[in-house]
Structures are given as structure tokens and as C-alpha cells.
Design brief:
InterPro entries: Acyl-CoA_Oxase/DH_mid-dom, Acyl-CoA_Oxase/DH_mid-dom_sf, AcylCo_DH-like_C, AcylCo_DH/oxidase_C, AcylCoA_DH/ox_N, AcylCoA_DH/ox_N_sf, AcylCoA_DH/oxidase_NM_dom_sf, Glutaryl-CoA_DH_mitochondrial. The chain has 427 residues and is an alpha/beta fold. The protein contains 12 helices and 7 strands. Bound molecules: flavin-adenine dinucleotide (FAD).
């Protein structure tokens, strides 16, 4: 029944209603060459400034970071000079306005994140904790004194941050945390923090630890800036967690607080409940959605090079075989779609129009697809996949972690499911 209307519209479109310029373009359009490194021409959506920032970040990461990562990963070593180098380039806290920070768009900050994670997810984790979780938290919720004291130094990488939310018994469910902030029994104007946090990026070397704890007066979660240099011996311990099988180029540890005195002035003044940590996490999760695509793109490039060079059966490069080509096609498609989705959410974030569920969607999707595809691409390397020299195994191990932290993928499924149905699955 709609056919006559459709036929009429089509006729109108092809004749009078269609401008001459459009007709000419359609008739003479030449097919554009396909760029496997940017299949859907995402670059065309970026501003001049974003392109320049991306090039600066890529150059630093490839020239200065990449040569260090293999040995760092073997030795489970994190070179904290990396944060200082990033600070010198203005890559830390890059979306923050003022305090010597760059104040760039969310898309530009995503491009920086992608460049870093193309080298290693561990380096990106160190940067995300500093920039999104701690600096972002202080910028959003801190007092003016807290901002003046910490943001500029953190932006230069002179002060290192850690973000303590997860506890040994409360990971996906941080609302049940046990860490408390009570009035200090002897020090006036101080609170006493007690409890344990685990799997905390950078905790062993952090100068300022943003710890989330339940405040005695209300029982609600509040944020506290714990300064290591001010903690009396025995009240703050941050032992490293050694022998990880992923994210080995980043440092992870625990936070033990035993009646640790923290000035009341170091508490975030207003924000309470999970809104505080979740706001910080939203920003970091957005970065992870970009970063994991960087890691996936590196897996694609490494696999393509390997498959073109490796010959099996009558001297054919294995890249000639369709099963290998399908693996590359799947991974490249997911990377291209993931990039476009991240740009879209970044643009909405810049306008203040991004819903948290959008970030759950791209964090979950890009992490899952990066992990899945990297595991499949690893197969192309055959036995050589087992050697760390080829780099792909490192990405696979790292991408398991990115899928797990800052809301494991299934938890983001529940967040999306709740938003879609209006029904709460996890209470
Ligand atoms: C290397 C590394 C660095 C980290 N850095 C930090 C950091 O800097 N700061 C910080 O605070 N935390 C950090 N984390 C912790 C991380 O965020 C947690 O590991 C993550 O939130 C998952 O919590 P969990 O490990 O306790 O797993 P659990 O919560 O025990 O979950 C285990 C599994 O059960 C599933 N599950 C749980 N509840 C449900 C449910 N209701 N329905 C369905 N499935 C469910 C989960 O999806 C998951 O698959 C880091 C972790 C790692 C590994």
C-alpha cells in the first residue's frame, strides 16, 4: 500500500526536487581508496586542533614509550617518569580548564588515550587514574583550596594520584564498602580513616590517594584526599600486588588505613553517595572506550604485517588465505565502529549531553570487541604468539583487565538492561 507513495517520492527526488549539484556529485563520484588504518574516515570528523593533538601524542608514545614497554612488562616495572613526561606535553588532566591544564575537547583527550593504549593498557591506566579519576574528581568536587593545592602539580606529573574504591570484599558492589571515616580521637579537626582497598593502580607510589569511605555522621560515602607525606608511620600502608599476569607495565597495590588522621579540609565538601566515585569513573570509562581501540588497532597492524611476511603452503603469505583475512576484516570493522561511537559520545560529552548509559555502552562494547578480536588475531601468529617479542600476547592479557575493571562488562550489561527495561537487576 505504501508503494505508490514511495514511487512518487523517488520520482520527485530523481527529477525536480533534487538540486543539480547533488545530481552531478552522485553521477561523477569517484570511488575513494580504502584506508585499512581508518576504514570509515574518522579523521574527517576531527578538528585541526584534535588532529594536531593526536599527532603529538602518537609521536611521543611511539618514540618514547614503545621502546620501554617490552622490558617494563617483563620486569613488572612502572617508570613513574612517564607521568612527568606526559605532564610536560600537557597530556595529563587534558580536559580540565585552568590550573595549567590544556583544556581540550573530550574527543582530543580520547585521541591521547588511544595513542597511549596503542602502546600498552598499563601506561594508559596510569594516565587515566591520574587524569580522570583523581584530577577529574578534585576538579569536579574539590574545594578551591584542594584544587589550588593539587591540580597544577598533578597536571605536571609532579604529584602522583591513586583512586581507592574497590575493597577486598566489595568490587562490583562498592556501595557496601566497609572503610570508615570517624572523628579522630585525639586530633581536633581531623578524621580517622580505617579500612582496606585492593587492586589500586599506582597506590604504592601515589603521593595523594583519593579514598572513598563511609562518613560517620550520615553513613554515606564521601571522598577524602589522603596525603602520604602527612600520614604518621603505621597509619597508611600501600603494598604492591606482584606477579600479575596482565597490566604488568603498570603498578597495582593495596591501601591499608589504620586510624589514619586526615584533615577535615581534605574531604570533598558536598558530594555524597556513589555519585562521587561514579562521576569520576564515567570519565575514565569513556577513556577506556577509546584506549582499547588503540590496543586493538595495534593488534591489527601487527597481525597484518606478520601475515604478509609469514609464508605457508607453496610459499603463499598466510594473509592470502580467506580465514586469516576474515579475522582481520572482523577486527578492523569493530575498531572502526568503536572509534565512531567514541567520537559521537565525546561530542555529546562536550555539549553536556552524554548519558552515563552511553558510556557504559561504549566501554562494554569496545572492551569486549577488543578482547575478543585480539584473542582471535593472536591465532594468526601460530607458535610465535607465545613469544613476548611479537607484542600481541601482552595486549590480550591487558585487555582482559580492561574488560574487568571500572565495571566488568556484565555489570555494564546490567546497567544497560536496567535503563532499557526500567527494572533493577542488581540490588
Ligand atoms: C589491574 C587492576 C587495576 C585496578 N585498578 C583499580 C583502581 O585504581 N581503583 C579501584 O578502586 N579499583 C581498581 N581495580 C578493581 C576493579 O575495578 C575490580 O576488580 C572490578 O570492579 C571487579 O570487582 P571484583 O574484582 O571484586 O570482582 P567481583 O565483583 O567479585 O565480580 C566477579 C564476577 O562476578 C560478576 N558479578 C558480580 N556481581 C554480579 C551481578 N549482580 N550479576 C551478574 N554478575 C555479577 C562480575 O561481572 C565478575 O565477572 C583494578 C583491578 C585490576 C585487576
Amino acid at each position: 500500500m505504501y508503494r505508490p507513495i514511495l514511487r512518487l517520492s523517488a520520482k520527485q527526488l530523481s527529477c525536480a526536487a533534487r538540486p543539480a549539484a547533488v545530481r552531478g556529485y552522485a553521477a561523477h563520484a569517484t570511488p575513494q581508496p580504502f584506508n585499512w588504518e581508518d576504514p570509515l574516515n574518522a579523521r574527517s570528523l576531527l578538528t585541526e586542533e584534535e588532529l594536531a593533538i593526536s599527532e603529538t601524542a602518537e609521536a611521543y608514545c611511539q618514540e618514547r614509550m614503545l621502546p620501554r614497554v617490552l622490558q617494563a612488562y617483563r620486569d613488572e616495572h612502572y617508570d613513574k617518569k612517564i607521568l612527568e613526561e606526559m605532564g610536560e606535553l600537557g597530556l595529563l588532566g587534558s580536559t580540565i580548564q585552568g590550573y595549567d591544564c590544556a583544556g581540550v575537547s573530550n574527543v582530543a583527550s580520547g585521541l591521547i588515550t588511544k595513542a597511549v593504549e596503542r602502546v600498552d593498557s598499563g601506561y594508559r591506566s596510569g594516565m587515566s587514574v591520574q587524569s580522570s579519576l583523581v584530577m577529574g574528581g578534585i576538579d569536579e568536587f574539590g574545594t578551591q583550596e584542594q584544587k589550588d593545592k593539587f591540580l597544577s602539580k598533578m597536571g605536571k606529573g609532579k604529584l602522583l594520584g591513586a583512586f581507592g574504591l574497590t575493597e577486598p570484599n566489595h568490587g562490583s558492589d562498592p556501595g557496601s564498602m566497609e572503610t570508615t571515616a570517624k572523628p579522630h580521637p585525639t586530633k581536633k579537626g581531623y578524621l580517622s580513616l580505617s579500612g582496606a582497598k585492593t587492586w589500586i593502580t599506582n597506590s604504592p607510589i601515589a603521593d595523594v590517594l583519593l579514598v572513598w569511605a563511609k562518613y560517620h555522621e550520615t553513613g554515606k560515602i564521601r571522598g577524602f584526599l589522603v596525603e602520604r607525606s602527612e600520614c604518621p608511620p603505621g597509619t597508611l600502608e600501600t603494598p604492591p600486588i606482584k606477579n600479575k599476569n596482565g597490566l604488568r607495565a603498570s603498578l597495582t597495590g593495596m591501601i591499608h588505613l589504620d586510624e589514619c588522621p586526615v584533615p577535615e579540609a581534605n574531604m570533598f565538601p558536598d558530594v555524597e553517595g556513589l555519585r562521587g566515585p561514579f562521576t569520576c569513573l564515567n570519565s575514565a570509562r569513556y577513556g577506556i572506550a577509546w584506549g582499547t581501540i588503540g590496543a586493538l588497532e595495534d593488534c591489527i597492524a601487527r597481525t597484518r604485517t606478520y601475515a604478509l611476511e609469514r609464508k605457508q603452503f607453496k610459499g603463499n603469505p598466510i594473509a592470502k588465505y580467506q580465514l586469516v583475512q576474515k579475522k582481520l576484516a572482523d577486527a578492523t570493522t569493530d575498531a572502526a565502529f568503536g572509534t565512531l561511537a567514541a567520537i559521537q559520545v565525546g561530542r555529546l560529552k562536550d555539549k553536556g549531553e552524554a548519558a552515563p548509559e552511553m558510556i557504559s555502552m561504549i566501554k562494554r562494547q569496545n572492551c569486549d570487541r577488543a578482547l575478543f578480536n585480539s584473542r582471535v588475531l593472536q591465532e594468526v601468529f601460530g607458535g610465535n604468539a607465545v613469544s613476548d617479542e611479537y607484542g600481541i600476547g601482552r595486549h590480550v592479557a591487558n585487555l582482559f583487565v580492561t574488560q574487568t575493571y571500572e565495571g566488568q562488562s556484565d555489570i555494564h550489561s546490567l546497567i544497560l538492561g536496567r535503563a532499557i527495561t526500567g527494572l533493577q537487576a542488581f540490588v
